[in-house]
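User: What would this chain look like folded?
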Amino acid sequence: MAITLQTATVASLDEFAEAVAACQHEGGPVQLHPGDLGWNWSLGADELARSLRGWRRDDEILAVGMVDAPTGLIRMAIAPTVDHDDTFAEQLVADLSDPERGVLPAGAGSVEARFGTAFRDLLSRSGWEVDESWTPLRRELTTPVEDYGLRIEIVDEHSAQLRVAVHQASFGTQKFTLERWHAMAASSPYQRARCLLGYDRDGEAVAAATVWSAGQGRPGLIEPLGAHPDHRGHGHGRAITVAAAAALQEMGSSSVTVCTPSSNIGGVAAYVSAGFEQLPDSTDFRRPNPQP
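Assistant: Here's the prediction, encoded as structure tokens.
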């Protein structure tokens, strides 16, 4: 069967999101998640569609990549059925290596390829170099989640502005706006997601997180999570992390996953303190410079 490469359209975004959800499987690495698509949907459906590439065989999307144009990085989700598929891997590497194929631009290019045994092996053998290191973390959800010590509210349109304010304070940026929250909340991945606000004993909103399910029995994702800087030092970051795990457990997720740069030692430690298991680091791959 021929393998075809396509760029998403606004009309095909739901199909792409479902294909990414189907790539999630328990025991596998932390790949591009439908929650990543949902979060980026906040920038607008047109922009998200332009960033997505899909590889089909027999009309089934078996791999999806989301390209961050400013950095030249593509984040991948690959179906378990093509883990050891050499032919599929050859097509992926060929499309990523040649800027004329419209995936990665000329110049700098890198790929977040955490899954695909044949794919990762071929990248290495084709001269792609080790790039940034990431630390995945996972918490299984087969046992009850402990009490997290915050009052948790599920965000709706009435509390969305407060959720946006906590995010802006947590990350020191005004980029995430109420308009962007509404765009995200209207996306198909958000139909299996929740925004959470955590309140302290004084009724102050002190932390927020968005949790994304990929469907029953599949790993869920936290993206993003933050604690208000005016209320740090009281364990609210850990508390909202545990609350996020509890929400995903209630939604039927098999586990909760996050991935953070390996250089973020404090972030890794914070997730470990919230019951996450630190998994072996994984590296991106950087495309080799063309020979003169």
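The domain at 140-278 is CATH 3.40.630.30 (Aminopeptidase). If you want, I can go into more detail on any region.
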